[in-house]
Design brief:
Layout (H helix, E strand, L loop, with lengths): L8 H12 L5 H20 L6 E6 L5 E6 L6 H8 L34 E9 L8 E6 L4 E5 L8 E8 L9 H12 L5 E8 L2 E6 L6 H14 L7 H16 L5 E7 L4 E7 L11 E5 L2 E7 L10 E7 L15 H23 L3 H20 L1 H10 L2 E3 L2 E3 L1 H8 L2 E4 L2 H13 L4 E3 L5 H8 L7 E3 L2 H7 L1 E2 L2 H6 L1 H12 L3 E7 L7 E5 L1 H15 L2 H8 L11 E6 L3 H7 L7 H15 L6 H22 L1
Parallel strand pairs: 1-7, 11-13, 16-17, 16-18, 20-22
Antiparallel strand pairs: 1-2, 2-6, 3-4, 3-6, 4-5, 7-8, 9-10, 10-13, 11-12, 14-15, 19-20, 21-22
The protein binds adenosine-5'-triphosphate.
Protein name: HSP90 family protein
Organism: Rothia endophytica
InterPro entries: HATPase_C_sf, Hsp90_fam, Hsp90_N, Ribosomal_Su5_D2-typ_SF
Length: 615
C-alpha cells in the first residue's frame, strides 16, 4: 500500500535557517508578507475593506502579535494551508504558478516563525460570511491543533502570536521590530504600524509611506502645476528624492537619475554617489511589489554602474525562495538592459553639456565612466569627447588629442609614458598615457572605431622626430662624443647628439624597452646553467649588446655646446655626468645610491673648478 512521506519539522526548520534564510529576522518579513497578501485577496473582493498590518511587541518583551485585516481563514483552510508544508493558496490553479498579485508563492514562509518561537498561534476569521472564527496552533514538534471559536467579536482578518524562545527575545524587542518593519515594509502600499512606547504611552507608529518616494516627487510636481506654476517643478522633484536618500541611505547624492522600465513594471531612482567607489561595489535597494528583497542587490544594474546606488521597485521581477535575491530570468535581463540604456542616456546628456554636475561627475567618477566606455561603443565615443586623459600637453580629452595631434598616440604603460614624455612634450607631440586602469583597453578599442587613428608610440619612433645634426658638426664633436660614450657606458647608456626644442632642455634620456628585455635575458643567460642558458641564448642576438638607454644631448643648448667644445677639460666628466643625472631625473626616475654618489662627486668637482676660476 502506498504511504505518505512524513516530515521532520525540526529538521526542515534547521535546513531553512542554515541554508535558505540569512537569519531569524526573516520571520517578520514572512508574517508581514502573509498579511499583505491576505489584504490583497480581501480588497480584490471588497475594495473598501480596511488595509492594515499591525505589529505589537509584547509589553513584557517576550513575544509579538501581528494582526492583519486580510481575507482570513476558515477552519478547513487553516488545516489545509497552515499545516501543509508547500501548500499555498496563492498559486494559479490552472497554470500552477504563483499569481502575479501575491508576494508569497511557495507555501513555506510560515515555517520561518519557528526560527524564533516553538509555537505559532493563529486566530482568524474568514471574510466568507457565516464562517466561525478559528484558532490554529502549530508546534515545533510537528503537531498542530485547530478549533473553531464561539467568539463573535473576532474581526475579519488574522492575528498571529509568537512567544519567542529564551534565546530569541531580541528579535521581538520593540526597537528590533521597528527596524525590521521599516526595512521590509517602508514602501508597502498599505498601513504598516508598530506599537511603541512614546513618553509612557503605547501608540501606533506608522512605518509605511503612502507613496513610493519617486511617485511622491512626481505628485508634488503635479500639485505645483495645479497651483499656477507652468512646468512640473524639477527642483522640487530632485529635493524630494534627495531627502529620501539622506534619510534612508545616509548620503547626499551628487545627482539623481529617474529609472522607469514599463515593460517589467520597474520604477525607481539611481543616486550618483558623492564619492568614488571601487568596481564591484554596486549594491542596490530592490523591492518587489513594494516589499524589500535586498538592500545589497547586485544583479539588477549592469556591473559598470558602480557609481550609482539605486532604489527600485518592480512588479514583475521574481525573488528566489529565500526572498533575499532576484531570480536571474528573462525579466531581470530585460530590466537590467533597459536600466543600463537609461543610465547611459543620462551620462551622455550630462557629459555633453558643461554644468556643475558634469564637472563633479568627471572629477569623482572618471574611473566608472571609463568602465562604461568599455561596456559600449556609443559610450566610448562620449567618453572620448568628454573624459580627461593624461597627455604630454596636460590633461585633456582624446578628441582634443586627435584634433591637435592628427592622431592619438599612446603608450600602453605609465612606465613607457614617463620614458618618452619629456622629449615628446619638448617636441610639442601629443602622447597619451594609457597606463591607468581601463585606459589602454579604451585606446585599443577606440583604434577600431571608424574615424579614429590610434597608434602606440615607442622610444624609437620618438628618436626619429629629433633632428640629426649635420655631418660637419658630427665630425667636429666626434672626440667629445667618444669620450662621453666611454664614460656613460658604465651606466648602460649610449650618447648621441640631436637638435631639438626647447633649447633650455640640455639632454633627455630615452630607454629602449626592447634592449632592456634583451639585457635582462642575457644577464639571466650568464647566471643560468648550460641547458637553460643555451635556451635563453636563442632569444638574443649575441652581437647585440647595445646599451638599453640613450642620452640625447641637445645641440641647441648652450651648456651642451660649450661642454662638447672642450672634451679635454678637467670638468668634462663631471659636466657630462651631471647632464646624464639631470636627464635621469627628468625621465621621472629616482636616483639610486650609486647615482646619488655620482651626483655628489660631479657637483663638488664642478664647484671646485668654478671656485678655482674665480680665484
Ligand atoms: N495572515 C494570513 N491570512 C490568511 N491566510 C494566511 C495568512 N498567513 C498564511 N496564510 C495561508 O497559509 C498559506 C501558507 O503560508 P506560507 O507563508 O507558509 O506560504 P505562502 O505565503 O503561500 O508562500 P511563501 O512560502 O512564498 O511565503 C498561505 O498561502 C495562505 O493561504
Amino acid at each position: 500500500m502506498a504511504q505518505r512521506f512524513k516530515v521532520d519539522l525540526g529538521g526542515l526548520v534547521e535546513l531553512l535557517s542554515k541554508n535558505l534564510y540569512s537569519g531569524p529576522q526573516v520571520y517578520l518579513r514572512e508574517v508581514l508578507q502573509n498579511g499583505v497578501d491576505a489584504i490583497t485577496a480581501r480588497t480584490d473582493l471588497d475594495p473598501d475593506a480596511p488595509a492594515r498590518v499591525r505589529l505589537e511587541p509584547w509589553v513584557d518583551g517576550a513575544g509579538i502579535t501581528i494582526t492583519d485585516t486580510g481575507i482570513g481563514l476558515t477552519a478547513t483552510q487553516a488545516e489545509e494551508f497552515l499545516a501543509t508544508i508547500g501548500r499555498t493558496s496563492k498559486r494559479d490553479e490552472v497554470l500552477g504558478e504563483g499569481r502575479a498579485e501575491y508576494l508569497g508563492q511557495f507555501g513555506i514562509g510560515l515555517l520561518a516563525c519557528f526560527l524564533i518561537a516553538d509555537a505559532v498561534e493563529v486566530t482568524s476569521r474568514s471574510a466568507t460570511p457565516g464562517e466561525a472564527p478559528v484558532r490554529w496552533v502549530g508546534l515545533a514538534d510537528g503537531t498542530f491543533e485547530v478549533q473553531t471559536l464561539a467568539d463573535a467579536e473576532v474581526e475579519i482578518g488574522t492575528t498571529i502570536s509568537l512567544k519567542a524562545r529564551a534565546d530569541a527575545t531580541h528579535w521581538v524587542a520593540e526597537e528590533t521590530v521597528v527596524t525590521l518593519a521599516s526595512d521590509y515594509g517602508d514602501m508597502l502600499p498599505l498601513e504598516v504600524s508598530v506599537r511603541v512606547n512614546a513618553g509612557g504611552q503605547r501608540v501606533w507608529r506608522r512605518i509605511s509611506r503612502t507613496r513610493l518616494p519617486w511617485a511622491v516627487a512626481v505628485e508634488k510636481s503635479a500639485e505645483g502645476t495645479e497651483h499656477g506654476s507652468t512646468a512640473p517643478n524639477a527642483h522640487e522633484t530632485a529635493m524630494a528624492l534627495t531627502n529620501y536618500a539622506e534619510a534612508s541611505l545616509g548620503f547626499t547624492p551628487l545627482a539623481t537619475i529617474s529609472l522607469n522600465v514599463p515593460a517589467t513594471g520597474t520604477t525607481g531612482v539611481a543616486y550618483v554617489l558623492p564619492q568614488a567607489v571601487s568596481p564591484g561595489s554596486g549594491r542596490h535597494r530592490v523591492y518587489v511589489k513594494q516589499m524589500l528583497v535586498s538592500g545589497r542587490e547586485d544583479t539588477l544594474l549592469p556591473d559598470w554602474a558602480f557609481f550609482v546606488r539605486a532604489v527600485l521597485n518592480s512588479e514583475s521581477l521574481t525573488p528566489t525562495a529565500s526572498r533575499e535575491q532576484l531570480r536571474e530570468d528573462e525579466v531581470l535581463l530585460l530590466t537590467r538592459e533597459a536600466i543600463g540604456e537609461q543610465l547611459k542616456s543620462w551620462i551622455t546628456v550630462t557629459l555633453t553639456e558643461p554644468s556643475p554636475v558634469q564637472a563633479r561627475l568627471l572629477e569623482t567618477h572618471h574611473l566608472a565612466l571609463r568602465a562604461v566606455a568599455l561596456a559600449s561603443d556609443d559610450m566610448l565615443d562620449v567618453v572620448a569627447q568628454a573624459l580627461p586623459f593624461e597627455t604630454t600637453q596636460g590633461f585633456t580629452t582624446l578628441a582634443e588629442v586627435a584634433r591637435e595631434g592628427g592622431a592619438v598616440r599612446f603608450t600602453p604603460t605609465t612606465e613607457g609614458y614617463r620614458r618618452i614624455a619629456p622629449v615628446a612634450r619638448a617636441q610639442g607631440l601629443w602622447v597619451v598615457n594609457g597606463g591607468y586602469v581601463y585606459d589602454a583597453d579604451i585606446l585599443a578599442k577606440l583604434a577600431h572605431r571608424p574615424g579614429w587613428e590610434v597608434t602606440e608610440m615607442t622610444a624609437g619612433e620618438l628618436t626619429q622626430t629629433l633632428e640629426v645634426v649635420g655631418i660637419d658638426r658630427e665630425f667636429e664633436v666626434m672626440a667629445a662624443l667618444e669620450r662621453a660614450k666611454a664614460l656613460l657606458a658604465e651606466q648602460d647608456c649610449d650618447v648621441q647628439l640631436r637638435s631639438f626644442a626647447p633649447a633650455d632642455v640640455p639632454a633627455v634620456l630615452l630607454r629602449d624597452a626592447e634592449a632592456e628585455r634583451r639585457r635582462a635575458i642575457s644577464q639571466e643567460n650568464e647566471d643560468a646553467g648550460n641547458v637553460w642558458g643555451g635556451l635563453l641564448g636563442s632569444f638574443t642576438d649575441p652581437s647585440d649588446s647595445k646599451p638599453s638607454r640613450t642620452l640625447m644631448l641637445n645641440d641647441t643648448n648652450d651648456s651642451v655646446r660649450r661642454l662638447l667644445a672642450q672634451p679635454h677639460h678637467t670638468s668634462f666628466e663631471a659636466g657630462m655626468n651631471t647632464l646624464y643625472l639631470s636627464a635621469l631625473m627628468l625621465a621621472g626616475e629616482g636616483l639610486g645610491s650609486r647615482e646619488t654618489g655620482l651626483l655628489s662627486d660631479s657637483l663638488s668637482q664642478l664647484l671646485a673648478a668654478a671656485l678655482r676660476t674665480e680665484n
